[in-house]
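#onboarding

Welcome to the new folks! Below is a worked example of what a typical request in this channel looks like: someone posts a single protein sequence, and someone else replies with the predicted structure as tokens. Don't worry about understanding the tokens yet, we'll cover that in week two.

Example request:
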Amino acid sequence: MSDKNLVSRLFEAGSHFGFKKARRHPTMASYLYTTKEGSDVIDLAKTSESLIAAKAILLEAGKLGKTVMFVGTKDEASKIVKAAAEKAEAPYVTNRWIGGMMTNFTEIKKRINRLETLTNEKTTGELDRKYTKKERVVIGREAAKLEFNFFGISKLNKLPDMLLVVDPRHDHIAVTEAAEKNIPVMALTSTDGDTRLIKYPVVANDALQTSISLIVTELVDAYIEGKSAYVPAEKPATPTRRRTA
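Example response:
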């Protein structure tokens, strides 16, 4: 059931504006309200319903201590997605999706570990002690590249439990890799998106920052609320061995 207040806010944010009919993906037909002057108009009552359902999924994920990775690398979304992920203390990819982040995580983890090593050596002053000035310049470039590509997932020790993607058409490699590893994807997608690999689609304008910001904020707040109620399971006490006389 849709929320009239949420529908109104989605309308004000421009979430109903779809792309030209010629760009419509066949899986989008059921999410449309009409087509006006050659452009698709999204049914915000359905958007509201799917958004409420997605929030419930994220609330539960937070309560269970699940890790949700935020992905949004296009210009219109990257800053919004990064801010949301940082607010939720969640991993994120907002600069560039590096192929193999999900499907070859062992190798990606090596790059993350290298970044951690260089960061620690810089902090402790070990870089200055171990390397010449010329070597430090080369290492500095390596560290900058690693930070650009991997800083958002630097605390990720295992594959995430879910991906939250803004514009899965733009970040299609992330969606494909997640599907290959059986990681469910939640996505904000416009009328040019393919929902077949999206388990939890929220169909709305994914180009306007007002629309992206509203929907991402709704989603991340639900996840944070769930996380605040998470109680880690206590580890079973290690049995003490009796000494025999």
